[in-house]
Amino acid sequence: MAYVNTLPIRIHNSSKIPIAVDNEGFFYRHHPVTFSLVSVTRNKEKSYSATGRVFITDKRLIFVADKPSEDGFETFSLILKDVSTSTLASVNPIASRYTFAVTLSLNSSSNNNAIDTLKVTVTFDPTDVKAKKTMADYYSMIMQSSLAANQKKSEVATLESVTALNADGIGDPPSYRRETHANEISFGYNRDNNHHSSVGAAVSRDDDSSRPPPPPYSSLV
C-alpha cells in the first residue's frame, strides 16, 4: 500500500522524523530533495510535489516535507513488499545524474481507494550526484530482495494449492484384509498330486498341517 498524508511523525532536533514500525531498520536518508509523485487510483491521476527529506528503510520508502505544499502534501510512505513491479522511469539524460525516478505497480487490494500505480521522482541538488547514486543502490538492493521474497511466497502458495487440488482427487486406497486364506492356498494347489505345492506353502502364512485339502480350483471360480 501507498499512503499520502497519513504518516505518523515526531520532531527531533527541529526536524520531522517518521515513527518506525516494528522491527524496521533505516538504511538511507537525505535532505533536501524535491519529491514528486504521480498516483493513479481507479484510473484517476493525481500529482503531488514538495521539498523535504527522503528515507529508505528495509520496509518502506518515505518522504516528509519540510512544510506542506500549497495543495497540502506533506508525507508519503510506500510499503515495499506491496510493490509487484518496479521500473526505472525515463529522465532527461543530463538530469538523470541527479534524479532518481521509478514507475511502480502495486499488488491488488480490496480497498477501492488504494493506489494502483505510482511514478516517484526524487530530484537532488545537481551537486549531490553521489547521494543520488547511493539512494538508487539502496533502493535497488532492498527492492530486489522484496520482489524475490514475494516471488518465493507466490510459488509456495501455488505449490500448496496444486498439492491440495491433487489430494482432493485421490481416493483412499483399498482395504486389504488377510481373510483370503483359501484363495491363497488354491493358487498353490496341485490337482495332479492332490496336495499343496511349494508355491502354495510359501504364500500361506498359517499352519495347514491339520487342514483338509481345498476343493479343486475350478469350484472357487
TrEMBL record:
<feature type="region of interest" description="Disordered">
    <location>
        <begin position="169"/>
        <end position="221"/>
    </location>
</feature>
<feature type="compositionally biased region" description="Pro residues">
    <location>
        <begin position="211"/>
        <end position="221"/>
    </location>
</feature>
<protein>
    <submittedName>
        <fullName>10066_t:CDS:1</fullName>
    </submittedName>
</protein>
